[in-house]
Amino acid sequence: MFGDAAARTWLEALIHPLVRDALARWRTDAAAAVPPPRALVEEVALLLESGRPAEYDHIVVIVADDSARRARIAARGHLEGLGAREARLLTDEGRIVHADTVIRNDGDFAALEAAVRDCLERVTTR
Fold first, then answer.
1. Cα separation, 98 vs 101, whole angstroms
2. pLDDT tens for residues 34-65?
3. Quick one: pLDDT at residue 3?
4. 33 in the same domain as 52
C-alpha cells in the first residue's frame, strides 16, 4: 500500500475525513464532560508531514535509536515495506525541531510509560 501512491491517495481521501470527524466529536464530548479531562492526547503519525501542527497545543515527539526501532518493528512482523513507509516521514531531526517535548524511547515500556506520565504531568500543571 505504501508503495502504491494512487492506492494510498485513494485510501487517505476515504479514511482521513472520517478520522478527523471522529476526533472532532471526541473533542466536543470531552469539552462537555464534567469535570473535563486534564488533557486530550492524540497519536498522529503524520502530524508534521500533514501540515496540521497548529491544531495542537503541545507536540510530543518520541524517538528511539534506529536499532531499537527496527528491532521493535521486526518483532511485530512489519519490516516489509519499511522503506516505503519511512520515505513518507520526516527524519527524527526534522520532527524534533517542531517538538515542544522530546521523549527518548530506547528503554523498556515501563521507562516510556514513566516518561509520558511525567510529560503529561508537566503539560497539565502549567
1. 9
2. 999 989 999 887 888 877 788 899 999 999 99
3. 66
4. no
* Pairing mode of beta strands 60-63, 101-104: parallel
Q: Is a pLDDT exceeding 90 seen at residue 115?
A: yes
Residue 22 phi, psi dihedral angles, 5° rounding: -65, -40
Beta bridge partners, 95, equal none
Residue 2: the pLDDT is: 60
Start-to-end C-alpha separation, the chain: 42
Dist CA 53 CA 48 (whole Å)? 6
Round the CA-based radius of gyration of the chain to a whole number and report it: 17
What residues make up the domain containing 98?
A: 40-124
Cβ(89)–Cβ(47) below 8 Å:
no
DSSP single-letter state for residue 90: P
Alpha helices (H) in the chain, listed in sequence order: 5-32, 47-50, 66-75, 82-87, 92-96, 109-124
Q: Same structural domain for residues 27 and 52?
A: no
Cell of 59: 507536540
DSSP 27-44: HHHHHHSSSPPS------
